[in-house]
Amino acid sequence: MTTDKIAVVTGTNRGLGRSAAIALATRGVRVVVTHRGDAAGAEETAEQVRAVGGTAAVLRLDLSDVSSFESFTSELGAQLERWGASRLDVLVNNAGVGIFGPLETVTLDDFDTVMGTNVRGTFFLIQSLVPLLAQGGQVINVSSSATRHTRPTTSVYAASKAALEALSRNLAAELGPRGIRVNSIAPGPTATDFNGGAMRDDDGLRQALADQTVLGRVGEPEEIGDAIATMASEGLRWVTAQRIEVSGGALL
Ligand SMILES: NC(=O)c1ccc[n+]([C@@H]2O[C@H](COP(=O)([O-])OP(=O)(O)OC[C@H]3O[C@@H](n4cnc5c(N)ncnc54)[C@H](OP(=O)(O)O)[C@@H]3O)[C@@H](O)[C@H]2O)c1
After folding, report:
1. How would you class 95 by CB atoms within 10 Å of its CB: exposed for 0-12, middle for 13-18, buried for 19 or more?
2. Is-contact 251 149, C-beta < 8 A?
3. pLDDT, average across residues 209-238
4. Residue 194 C-alpha to ligand 1 middle, in angstroms?
5. Distance between start and end Cα atoms, the chain
6. Pseudo-torsion of CA 236, 232, 230, 40, nearest 10°?
7. How far is the CA of 84 from the centre of ligand 1 (A)?
8. In this protein, which residues make up the domain named Ketoreductase (predicted)?
9. Whole-angstrom Cα distance, residue 72 to residue 35?
10. Of the residues 194, 202, 206, 220, which should be mutated to test ligand 1's pocket, given the most ligand atoms within 8 Å of the CB?
C-alpha cells in the first residue's frame, strides 16, 4: 500500500522510534528518520524501512539543541522538495529520556536533561515544524503510562510526560482550527534499551511488571510502533486531544 504521506519521527535510531518508522512505512508513509548522533543506527532503521517496501531519508536532530531547529527545518524542507512534496503530514515526538531515582539523588543536570528533552525540546520542535504541517496533519507525542500510576523514583520522568500530555491537549485546542490534530500515545513498560534495557533483560523485573498487567506480559516495541502508526492513519482522523495508553492494561 502506498500513500503520499510523510512523517518525521524523532529518536529513530533504535527502540520505539525505529518500530514506529517501520510500522508507518508498512502503511505506505514515507519516513524521515532522525538521530542525535547515532548515524549508523538511523541508517539501519532506514534499511529496515526500505526492506518493508518503504521510503526513508535520514537527518540529524538533537532535541537538546533548540538553536539547531531552524537549520533542521530547512533541511527537512529540502528533503520534502526532493520527494516532490511541500508539506509534512505527521510529526511523531518519540525521542525521550528517563532518569530514575529517589528525590534526594536527582541532580540539577538530571532534571534539566529530562525536562529539556521531553518537554522543552519537544515543544520547540513542534513550534518549528507546525508551519510545515499540512491541513489534516498531526502531531503524536509519545508519553508514558507513568502519568497515570505512581512508582517511587519516577517523579521527574512522570512529571515531564505529564507536562507533555498537557501540552498535547492544549496544542490540540490551539491547532485544531488549522486542521491539525494532536494526540498522545502512552506506552507501558516495553522491551527496549530504555532504563538500561531493564524491561528487556531483567527477568525478575519483567515478571513483576507482567504481573501488573491484565494481559500478563511486558510490551514489545512493535506493539507501540503499530499503535503510533494506527494513530497516524485516516481511520482515526476524527480523534484529537486524546491520550491512548498502550500498556496491556498496566496497574488498572
Ligand atoms: N520503553 C518503555 O518502557 C517506555 C515506556 C513509556 C514511554 N516510553 C517513551 O518512549 C520513547 C522511546 O523510548 P524507547 O523505549 O525507544 O527508549 P530508548 O531505546 O532509550 O530510545 C530513546 C530514543 O530517544 C533518543 N533521544 C534521547 N535524547 C535525545 C535528544 N536530546 N535528541 C534526540 N534524540 C534523543 C535516543 O537517542 P540516542 O540513541 O542517541 O540516545 C533514542 O533514539 C521515549 O520518549 C520514552 O520516554 C518508553
Report:
1. buried
2. yes
3. 97
4. 6
5. 37
6. -170
7. 30
8. 5-188
9. 12
10. 194
Domain ranges of the chain: 6-246
Instruction: Answer yes or no: are the C-beta atoms of 93 and 117 closer than 8 Å.
Output: no
Second-level CATH architecture of 6-246: 3-Layer(aba) Sandwich (3.40)
- 3-class SS at 31? strand
Q: Round to whole Å and give the CA distance between 39 and 36.
A: 8
Amino acid, single-letter form, for residue 142: V
pLDDT, tens only, 109-131? 999 999 999 999 999 999 999 99
| The length of the chain, given as a count of residues | 252
Q: Is the beta carbon of 199 within 6 A of some atom in ligand 1?
A: yes
Give the C-alpha distances (Å, rounded to integers) separating 24 from 2, 13, 40, 202, 207.
Answer: 11, 15, 20, 30, 30
- 157 catalytic? Reply is yes
- Cα–Cα distances in Å, from 171 out to 94, 114, 131, 184? 17, 21, 14, 11
Dist. CA 144–CA 133, nearest whole Å: 25
> With the CA atoms of 232, 53, 77 and 166 taken in that order, what torsion angle do they form, in degrees rounded to the nearest 10?
20
Nearest to 161 by CA among 222, 96, 99: 96
200 CB near ligand 1 (under 6 Å): no
Q: How do residues 163-194 score in pLDDT, each as one tens digit?
A: 999 999 999 999 999 999 999 999 999 999 99
Q: Name, in order, each residue with C-beta under 8 angstroms of 180's C-beta and a sequence gap of 6 or more.
A: 130, 133, 135, 136, 137, 138, 139
